[in-house]
Amino acid sequence: TAAALMLGGIHEPVAAKEPDTIQQGVERLQSGSVPFSEENGVTVSTREEFMDALQQRKSPITVSSLVTIGQEAETSGRMIPVKIPAGTLIRGTQNGILNCRCPIQLEGDVCFQDIEVTFESSDALGSVPHREIFLAGHSLTFDNVKTFLEGGGGDPGGFGGTEEELLPTVYAGGFTNTQIGDNASLTVRNSNSETMFKAVYMGHEAENDNKVPYRGTATVNLDTRVIVRERVDTSKNSQAEINIAGGVNDYARTKEFYGNENTTLTLSQSTIDGAVVEGVGNIVVADKGCLTSTTDTYGNVTLQRGGCLDVNSLDNVLISGDFTGVSDAQEERGIFVVKQE
To answer: 34-72 burial by CB neighbour count: b if 16+ within 10 A, else e?
Structure first.
């Protein structure tokens, strides 16, 4: 392979704005605009106590045992989401589990911390799963949150469901006929081995269940340990930023990203091996991060401070936009790896 080092002195990276950091969601929640007063906190151990705490807008809510929520349904059988008020911090003790039989929906910026949040709705007995997390145009932070729940995929006849895993899907919009905000954000930090999502759709239409669509601005901050099984999709957003950050020797476990010309994917320090990056208008790899990609077509590419884009596995590569390195010749330059021929 041949490594081509970009020359200094060319223009700045193409990006809508400075990317958010992984910590931004939590910092915003902990700022004065969204107070977390310990005096207003409460510890709950039953569904009734938890729902009462939400109604009274208590925060932080500490879950000390297995609490299962989700009882109300539409006449069609579709489960109605439990709504989490703005400024709510929900955290757990060692035995704290919030088990959801329904979707959840934000009413403002919300943080879950040090807790297990599972969604047990499955396709057992022909049921339609309801494992949605509706951001409703607001900001959600998951800080050391376990979401994995084993499915009933091995059950003969499928009476326990056909799915191997019961994982939530994030939608930036809302449940049918609900009011939503205009600045959706998902931050996942301090992930553990069971921090998992099925998919993340930061932009979407009403689809077949009449969701409230979302096409506004979106930010996704992920650490390297979180797993998104299918995709992080910002292809329908008016503007979006996807930020992946970790240590120099960390390999990100989320690998599929879909966007449009107004999407910026920023990878710093860590490595994504075998990435799928489709339709993303701006790719920034910095601080010794490495993106090894199976995608052969790119818009704007910025490689700086040792950031590496490796397309050595591809026969033909097209960069249709700007190809940018560092602005200061004294900085460590980016690295572009292609096949020798």
So the answer is: bebeeeeeebbbebebbeebbeeebbbbbbbeebebbee
- 10 Å CB burial of residue 12 (0-12, 13-18, 19+) is exposed
For 259, the token pair is: 């966007």
Contacts of 266 (CB under 8 A, 6+ apart): 15, 19, 241, 242, 243, 244, 284, 285, 286
Residue 12, CA distances (Å) to 147, 291, 314, 327 in order: 39, 20, 27, 6
Beta bridge partners, 335, equal 5, 308
Minimal CA–CA distance to 117: which of 99, 138, 136?
A: 99
Q: What is the pLDDT of residues 237-278, one digit of tens each?
A: 999 999 999 988 899 999 999 999 999 999 999 999 999 999
Strand 297-298 and strand 318-319: the pairing is parallel
CB-based burial label for 194 (10 Å; 0-12, 13-18, 19+)? middle
Helix locations, 233-296, DSSP H: none
- Tens-digit pLDDT profile for residues 118-133: 999 888 776 778 899 9
Residue 86, SS3? Answer: coil
How far is the C-alpha of 218 from the C-alpha of 255, rounded, in Å? 19
pTM beyond 0.85: the answer is yes
Judged by phi (left if over 0) then psi (alpha if -120 to 50, else beta), residue 191 lies in beta
